[in-house]
């Protein structure tokens, strides 16, 4: 017997919360949600940047919130005027530090903060998401290949898929998925690479199977797909243009 499966073609009438929405992948996701007919609640730490982004996108609501603060996250979700359909969290950044130069207390704080952020969005976000709605987290593939300075990022890269799968079981029927980008051409990448940014772009254009650099819209499109496809949960989706297939 063939089941009659109808996938939503857009997000018309849906409300999507985007955390980390003032730039990069978060902003691109907010734009695409609006393009697909959805309503957007945009949250971020920098009020000025958030206001500019919200005015451009046409956000329904904005909130200044530090996602690393569990109390602030709890208040943010509690203050929403009603249930939402999806939550996308792009908060968090990679952290690189050679062991010889590492402050172990700082490393513990970075690792614990990233896990606590994910758990906080899951705990407080799932409480306001409608059944079959989605929590989409954005992680990364940066720690898949061992490298000097990448111990903490490697551990997080390994931990987040396992955490996502466990949350998908515990929070069902709310769906939980993880998007794992490689290098993405964002303002964060620019700030990390500085004057080496263009060199990195050229290297990727020459070496990646897709022959171009992955942009925030690529990642946002995957996030939108995961919101719409109600058969997907507990999964990690790499989006790196084939970066892991290329020898270092």
Automatic annotation (TrEMBL):
Residues 14-187 form the Ketoreductase domain. SMART domains: PKS_KR (SM00822). SUPFAM superfamilies: NAD(P)-binding Rossmann-fold domains (SSF51735). It comes from the Bacteria. Keywords: Oxidoreductase. Pfam families: adh_short_C2. Gene3D superfamilies: NAD(P)-binding Rossmann-like Domain. Belongs to the short-chain dehydrogenases/reductases (SDR) family. PANTHER family: DIHYDROANTICAPSIN 7-DEHYDROGENASE (PTHR43477:SF1). This is SDR family oxidoreductase.
């Amino acid at each position: 017997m063939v089941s009659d499966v109808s996938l939503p073609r857009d997000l018309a009438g849906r409300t999507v919360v985007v955390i980390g929405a003032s730039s990069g992948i978060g902003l691109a996701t907010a734009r695409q949600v609006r393009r697909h007919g959805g309503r957007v609640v945009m949250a971020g730490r920098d009020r000025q940047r958030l206001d500019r982004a919200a005015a451009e996108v046409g956000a329904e609501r904005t909130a200044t919130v530090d996602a690393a603060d569990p109390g602030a996250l709890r208040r943010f979700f509690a203050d929403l005027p009603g249930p939402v359909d999806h939550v996308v969290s792009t908060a968090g950044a990679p952290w690189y530090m050679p062991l010889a130069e590492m402050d172990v207390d700082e490393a513990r704080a970075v690792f614990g903060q990233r896990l606590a952020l994910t758990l906080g969005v899951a705990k407080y976000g799932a409480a306001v998401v409608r059944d079959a709605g989605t929590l989409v987290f954005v992680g990364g593939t940066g720690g898949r290949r061992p490298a000097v300075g990448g111990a903490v990022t490697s551990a997080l890269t390994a931990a987040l898929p396992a955490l996502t799968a466990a949350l998908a079981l515990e929070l069902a029927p709310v769906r939980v998925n993880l998007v794992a980008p490689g290098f993405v051409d964002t303002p964060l990448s620019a700030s990390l690479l500085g004057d080496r940014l263009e060199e990195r772009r050229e290297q990727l254009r020459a070496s990646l199977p897709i022959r171009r650099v992955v942009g925030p819209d690529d990642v946002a499109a995957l996030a939108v797909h995961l919101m719409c496809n109600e058969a997907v949960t507990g999964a990690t989706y790499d989006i790196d243009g084939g970066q892991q297939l290329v020898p270092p």
